[in-house]
C-alpha cells in the first residue's frame, strides 16, 4: 500500500504530460534567488538601524527590539520556505503537483500550515515595529497616538484571528483517519482559509497605506523646505519596502 502511494501523484497530469517523481521540472531556484536577495537587504537594513541607534543615538527602544524580533522571524520563515522547496530541502514547492506523490503532499501540508502562520506573525511584527517607531517619534501628538494604537489593535487582532482560524480549520481532528490529507480536513480548510487569505491580502494593502499615512500627513506641518519634505517622505516610504521584503508572500496549499 505504501509503495502504491509513493507512485500515486497528488494531481492528475494534464493531457500529454506524465508524472515524474525522480527528476521533476522545478522552478525552485527562482525562489532561492528571491530569498537570498531579500534576506541580504533585511540584514543590511536591520544592521544599519541597530548600529545607528547604538553608536549615534545611544538609545534603544521598543520599536528596535520589535524590529530585531521581526527580522529573526523573517529569517526563520525563509528557512522554512527553503526546507519546503524541492531543492534545496526536498519538499514540493517549485514543482508541478502531478510530480508530487501522496506521501510528500502529506508531509508538506504540515509545513504549509506553519508557513501560513509564520508569515502572518512576521507581517504583524513588522507593522507593529513601524507603529512603535511612530509612537516614539510623534508621541506628543494626541491624534497620532490614537492612530498608532488603532493600527496596532487592528493588525494584532487580525493576526490572532487568522492564526486561530488556520489552526481550527487546517489541523486534523481525532475522527479524521486520513490525517493531513483526510478529505474532510481538506474540504474544511479549503472552504475557509482561501477566503481568509484573500481578505488578508486586502487587509495588508489597507494597513500598509494606513501605516504610511501616519508620518506622511505630518510632514507638511514640520516647516521644512520642499526638497527636505520629499527627502523625509522617501525615508518613511522605505517602511513599505521593509514590509514587502520581510513578507514577500502569503501562501497556503491544502
Automatic annotation (TrEMBL):
It is a multi-pass membrane protein. Keywords: Membrane, Transmembrane, Transmembrane helix. The keyword Cell membrane does not apply. Coiled coil: none annotated. Pfam families: Fung_rhodopsin. GO terms for cellular component: membrane. It is found in: Membrane. The chain crosses the membrane at residues 28-45, 65-85, 117-135, 147-165, 196-218, 230-247. Residues 1-23 are annotated as: Disordered. Residues 49-242 form the Rhodopsin domain. PANTHER family: MEMBRANE PROTEIN PTH11-LIKE, PUTATIVE-RELATED (PTHR33048:SF158), PTH11-LIKE INTEGRAL MEMBRANE PROTEIN (AFU_ORTHOLOGUE AFUA_5G11245) (PTHR33048). Belongs to the SAT4 family. This is Rhodopsin domain-containing protein. It comes from Polyplosphaeria fusca.
